[in-house]
Amino acid sequence: MQRLSPNDPDRIGPYRVFAELGRGAMGRVLLGAGHDGRLVAVKVIREWLREDEEFLARFREEVRKSRQVSGLYTAAVVQAKPDDPVPWLASEFLRGPTLDEAVKGAGPLPEAAVIRLAAGLASALEAIHAAGVIHRDLKPGNVILEGSGPRVIDFGIARAAEGSDLTRTGALIGTPGFMSPEQTQSEPLTAASDVFSLGSVLVMACTGTGPFTGASTLATMNNVVRADPNLDGVPVRVRALVERCLAADPGDRPTPAELLQLIGPVTPSSRPWPDAVTALAEEQESAIARLLDDTGEGATRIDNGPTLVTDPNRRTWVVDEPPQPEPVAPPVPPRPPIDDRPKPPKPPTDPSTPARVGVGAAVVLVVAVISTVAWAADRANNDDDDEGQSPEHATYVEECRDYGYSEAECEESWPNDPSLTWTGQLYTDEPTPTYETYETYETEETTSSDVSGQRDVYVQECQYDGYSAAECDASWFADSSYTWTGVLYGDDEPTDKDVYVQECVNDGYAQSDCESSWYADPSYTWTGELF
Q1: pLDDT tens digits for 13-30?
Q2: Rounded to an integer, what distance in angstroms lies between the CA atom of residue 123 and that of residue 261?
Q3: pLDDT tens-digit series, residues 397-447
Q4: Which of these, 2, 75, 144, 349, has the minimum number of CB atoms within 10 Å of its CB?
């Protein structure tokens, strides 16, 4: 969970938004609240996709199908506006860590918890498939371990099973390592594809890694298609379920209903997850409480006031105070006549008095002159300080320090940041490549603005994993998938094209034929056949 930057909106539709819960290649998920104060998760699609009619059609389909499958095992849709200038979808906010966060923060789950997870996911898929939807991206990051059990989220790339294909021909949509073999090869999908993904998720819950994880994205995808799953460390009871789910032939995999029969009844529990996972949920609650408390102090919005006071560095709504009655002066008693007023006694005459008064006046005059000179010098110094640091500069440094950086680091970042607005990232003297330093090409399917948007997402997510901007930029051009999966691509590593052509040549074809096949093959994975 991250605080929003000053450039982010305060409101999406009728919901106030406070923080970012997550992001992906297609959109961001923000924490918001409705008029009644209830928390919601608001998904907003990325700006570079708002003109993509194909994607907007898929988003409308997501909204329609999400409303049908919302229930005990998914996040209920509260409201959605897919046709707004900024399309959005608001669903109930589910409290608890994702399975990915739980395994990374608390370690693999014990066998009993994994069996409970398997039953919950099978029930969720049963409800999803009953609505005519194939999820297509069931992975640990899309499973939330809520107090009542697992919940499946994010139908962002779901597709109606009976509807037309809204994705581009040959496009790979999903997460490598948790896709089925038929999905990896861009073949038509059935509900059995989600069951295969469920099996991979259970292995990750038991061991901390997927059953097909390789050294690179390409290696992982090749493992999904050709290799046997790595089930080392999977308990015997879970292994019996996983082996059925990970069958290469979709027809050999069990349905969610059959999987529930294999699992059998699960014992009810008020604490379904290990204490370490529950502690992560409590940390999340505390973080939300701190965030809302800070938001209440920093940006209070009151609807019964017409006055808006705008600070360029901090958005604050201020309401007019109700008018206060003017104070009424007490009545003044009438003056007595001049002759009737008592007269003070005259002081005794002292010939030395005029001299003492003259000396006192001179002392007062000297003190006043000295004070004036000191005030002017101090004022000049303050003016110099004010000219040296603008209000924007001071606000930038203050917000930077709130993120945990030292004042020296924040001062160094200020002149190097072209936006002059703190967005949560330090800027150094090291030059950062810009979009203009690279040449982009426009094709029938992808425009230069699309490429820039995808690159922006790729580089930002790469930097979140601890790599530098230069490394992430270099990886973007070396990675033919254009999707960050946690693996840094470098010049010393073979590209997907190199691997494809080499495997093709090894099968006896000419290199020129293999290179032509690479561009014609929508899967970008050599399967033994020229395109």
Answers
A1: 999 998 988 877 677 899
A2: 11
A3: 887 887 778 888 888 887 777 667 777 778 765 443 333 333 333 333 334
A4: 349
Rounded Cα gap, residues 481 and 198, in angstroms: 24
- Inter-residue contact 120 to 72 (CB < 8 Å): no
Long-range interactions of 164-169: CB distance < 8 A, separation 24+: 166/54, 166/57, 166/58, 166/61, 167/54, 167/58, 168/54, 168/445, 169/522
* Catalytic (active site) residue 378: no
**HEC assignment per residue over 147-202:** CCEEEECCCCCCEECCCCCCCCCCCCCCCCCCCCHHHHCCCCCCCHHHHHHHHHHH
Of the candidates 458, 480, 511, the one whose C-alpha atom is nearest the C-alpha of residue 221 is: 480
Q: What is the pLDDT of residue 313?
A: 40
Whether residue 240 has pLDDT greater than 90: yes
**Which residue in this structure is represented by tokens 């690279």?**
438
Of 198, 205, 206, 225, give the one whose Cα is nearest residue 214: 225
Instruction: For residue 64, give the amino acid letter.
Output: R
Which residues touch 177 (CB under 8 Å, ≥6 apart)?
200, 210, 212, 213, 220, 224
Q: What is the DSSP string of 94-117?
A: PPS-BHHHHHHHH-SPPHHHHHHH
Q: What is the pLDDT of residues 485-514, one digit of tens each?
A: 777 776 455 667 778 888 888 888 888 788
Give me the amino acid identity at 193: S
- Which residue in the list 10, 83, 137, 228 is annotated as catalytic? 137
Helix 192-207 with 111-130: angle, nearest 10 deg = 160
> Under DSSP, is residue 26 helix (H, G, I), strand (E, B) or coil?
coil
Kindly report, residue by residue over 140-162, the tens digit of the pLDDT: 999 999 988 999 987 655 554 54
Residue 88 host element (H or E): strand 88-92
